[in-house]
Amino acid sequence: MYLTLLQELKQAVAKHIREKYSIDVSIVLEKPPKLELGEAASPLCFELAKRLKRAPRQIAQEVASTLAPVPGIARIEVAGAGYLNAFFDRGAFWKSLASGTGSPAALKHEKVIVEHTSINPNKAAHIGHVRNAVLGDTIARILRNAGERVQVQNYIDNTGVQVADVVIGFQHMEKKSVAEVRELAARPGFDYLCWNLYAQVTQFYEQDKAQAAALRAATLKAIEEGHGEPAEMGAVVADAIVGFHLRTMARLDISYDLLARESEILHLKFWDAAFAKLKEQGVIHFATTGKMAGCWIMPAENDASKPAESAVKEDEENIQDKIIVRSNGIVTYVGKDIAYQLWKFGLLGKDFHYKRWLDAPQNETVWTTTTDADDPAAPHFGEPAARVYNVIDTRQSYLQEVVAQGLRGLGHAQAATNSIHFSYEIVALTPRCARELGYELTGDDAKKSYIEVSGRKGLGVKADDLITKLEEAALREVDIRQADLPEFEQMTQPERTATAHTIAVGGLRFFLLKFTRNTIIAFDFEDALSFEGETGPYCQYAIVRARGIRRKSAETSVGPASIPMEIAAKFLNGSEGSDFWELLVQAGMLDHAADAAISAQEPAFVAKYAFQLAQSFNTFYHKHHILSEPDAEKRAFLLGLTEVVEYQLVRALSLLGIAAADKM
What we know:
Isoleucyl-tRNA Synthetase, Domain 1
């Protein structure tokens, strides 16, 4: 609502300035520091003063007095040396928010792809993967809320070196056959088994590095080409692990439209098509001398802004990242990613075949790429995207730039610009959290602000373990709170379990989202599940309070919550109006927060909005005795304001992928 009014005001002022002064100018609107100064302010007249050679305040007075009425705006005042301050029509603002409908964002024509999660399918997911998935799922939700036609993709590197490592572990360390691995893969805990095996393979390689390199190269080549027992075993491992990953993420209400598998990029000749284009356009060349002899490489782009010595140093540091095809013919990750990115934008001239993924979580339909015949019911995944968000951690920044360089080299500068690297930093553990998970810390580790984890070394927090531990802790808190209630008000055990799950997911998602993307997070169980402070449970509990008021109102027939706009305006403009109005405006700023999250690519803005609204509502809750208010009109108004806040807070948490509980 707030954003809608700002947009309408901008359009009206811009039109007025164009007609009155024959000037096209960008209208900037800011939120004043105090509501006494209005709900929006513009320094527009200072810019006009430069062009018209007149005093800004004089122009401001002229604009304010001649601007035609704008729906939803009560008045325009001149402030200071020439600011234009807009004051909203409080009754109209109330009516729009209290109706609980709002105008849904118009569905946009262009497609947007959000690729996230993209875990190597060789072991259980860990907490770092969860941050990726939560960020990707949340930005997809926020984009959809804005009317974007979003398609969520999960890239499955099922022919990569990590899968090869697990295959080597099973074949050469465990001496398992394909049939034996298939039997293991059908059992619960296979992803955990692979987690441990992957760490052991790392140690196995250290015994004979030369032999390990040869074994790895041979296994990887067989998997990429789809030949022999290593390829068959690799498919069993990867497909099974993907199923585990999907079920893990489903616990966090995260789902996908398409699993884009690397095997099809190779077997459907996507890479061959991209390789030909890159060679034809001279984007890559064959190295005949030096460290990269025999490799196809992508030279660094000329950058006049960088000193020559800096460019040389950067080139040396990232030498491996510039290799597109190794001397043994194996395509690197970045090479296959260029092909995939070209397909996303419809620039490759090829498309996948599609079928349903049979091992999808319950009640979910997930599609996957395939070399088999197309399922005629498959959506048109090959439709070109206008923008692509690649959710990949910040350590992959250079690789993502190489992909963009490849697009630019092929003449697709706009696609390169619209390839958005939605980067994020690592998730570590607080020392307290590490100890709770059973890690032994040295004296120096215990003094650190966070403890880094490593999946390759087997040191890390498995996502399922994390979620389960959070659910158990949340259930203990729910049981404690329920014990203080009369028996007839207590939840049943299934209700407590469901509530604990809602709290656990809310605590985890909010904790991962409240920090800006490029902040290193030190995860802590106690902090995430706290009912106080900037946490998911704190926001959820504000909704529980609001619903409790509404429930008791219905039970006691205290009075209806809906009231006419005129009555609402009376209280919003009355002696206590400032407090009420401030809460109402804050509730109405969700669209503004969501828009800022898209513009700045920071879901944390929506998390901040939710927390601040919950804070303000709790202050309102303690200050006003809603159900015992003797004035019937005022009581109805207070109930209505409570419902508005509840509705907006539920919407905000929904954008964050967090459900609201009825009781806690």
